[in-house]
Structure formats: structure tokens, C-alpha cells
Amino acid sequence: MSTFTAELVGTMLLILFGGGVVAGVSLHKSKGEGGGWVVITFAWGFAVAMAAYAVGGISGAHLNPALTIAFATIGNFAWADVPMFIVAQLLGAFLGAVLVYFVYLPHWKGTKDKGAKLGVFSTTPAVKHIPSNMIAEMVGTFALVLGILALGTNEITSGLNPFLVGILIVVIGMALGGPTGYAINPARDLGPRIAHAILPIPGKGDSAWWYAWVPVVAPIIGGVYGAVFFSFIWNGADAALFWIFSVVVAAVFVAAQMTVSKVEE
Fold it and tell me: 209 partner at 20 to 30 Å CA-CA among 10, 137, 164, 183?
């Protein structure tokens, strides 16, 4: 199997399991309907772990453009391979979402909540405030990338790393996922959002394209910052990038604080 195919298959599995659990707890007459946030966060964590176990030995199981770009930024991955990985991840996420659609095919018509249908595929904020939504996605992805890199500094029993990353995903979802649904992965959000737009889902509503750029841009900023933060704090490298991204992140925080009073309760 090529690295392209590995990233495609791994990301497809990620969305099949992750999007599948959201469908399971959200769609009408599903046996898991009403399962709730805890079920979703645990299943997404296990989805990441299982996908990583499936293809990690072939491609490294990035499964996430933010992670791929972050690794390349600090020299842990070749920039020449970044476009190929991102294309594979987007295609895999799209295909995974299509599979979820067909698995739950009889349930879409009976589900009246358009937001619940969209939520199976992609994220939207609980409270619309773009700077704050950016912060939630940036911090979540920062924690993801920093956590993965920090795990790599420990001597861990062979084969345990994907499981620990899955646990990291669970705690990110529980602790930081409330504001936006924790996309923390541009492919995980954009690929399924395109599927939502294309598929003939009964009564689906729009695909919230007004928000689609946030779970693409914010995870990349947060992921890169997590990588350069690790590189600078742990290893004393990439100082210039660390300070540049610190300013960018700080600017978003300031913008959020300055505009949050305008948010409707």
C-alpha cells in the first residue's frame, strides 16, 4: 500500500467511525439516538486510534492536514509530500462521510432537525462568534499536536502510541469541544461538508459554508503553533516561528475579547 492510499483509507475509517457515532446518537429511530456527548467523545477517540493502528505503519497516520503541515513546519515531514497527504486526507474524509450516509440511509428522512443532519458531517459553533470559535479550534489543535509530540519524548511500549492519542482526542473533546464541536482537523470537516452539500439528503438545509473556513484555518494555525511551541520550549529551536505564531494567536485572543460583548445571549 502506498502512503497516499494509507492516508486515504485511514481518514476514511476515521470519518466512518467518527461521523457514524454522531449519526447514531442524532438521527431519528437510530438505536443509539440520544446517546449524548460522552458517547461521541469516546467514539471519536477510538476512531482516531483504530485508524492510526490501521495505517500508522505505512504513512505515519497523520489523517489530518493540520498535523501534516505542523510536522513539515518543524522539519519532521517533507514539504514535498504535504500536498499528496492533504489530497488523500480530503478524499478519505469525503468517502467516509458518503459511507456514513449510506449506513444510515433510511434515517435521514425521519430526522427533522437540519442542524443534526449537518452535525453528522461537519461542525458549527454553539455560539456564533468567529474570533472565539477560532480560539476553540486553535487551542484544541494546539493541544493535539503538542500532545502527540510530547508523547514521542517518552519511552512507551511498542504499539501503545495510537491508543494514547485516542485518549488525547477524548479529553480534547470533553474539555474543549463544547464551543465548536472540535473539528481540530481541516479534512475531517471540509471533506464531509462537501459530501453533505452533494448528497441527496432529504430536508438537509444548507451546508453552513459561512463557517467552513474556520475549521480549516484555525486548526492549521493552532497545529503549527503547537509544533513550534514544542520545538522551541522542548528543544530551543524555531524561535522565529514561535514568536511569529505567538503574535498571530495573541491577536485572535485580543479580537475575541474586544468583540465578545456583541454576542447575543
Answer: 10
Does 255 fall in a domain? yes
Q: Beta-carbon neighbour count of residue 154 at 10 Å?
A: 9
Distance in angstroms (rounded) separating the CA atoms of residues 30 and 46: 20
Report if residue 99 sits inside a domain.
yes
In 3D space, the residue among 207, 185, 186 whose CA is nearest the CA of residue 196 turns out to be 207
Does the pTM of the predicted model rise above 0.70?
yes
H/E element holding 250?
helix 239-259
Range of the domain at 32: 3-259
Q: What is the grid cell recorded at 172?
A: 480534547
| pLDDT tens track for 108-144 | 999 999 999 999 999 999 999 999 999 999 999 999 9
68 phi and psi, to 5 degrees? -60, -50
- CATH number of the domain to which 98 belongs: 1.20.1080.10
The count of structural domains within the chain is 1
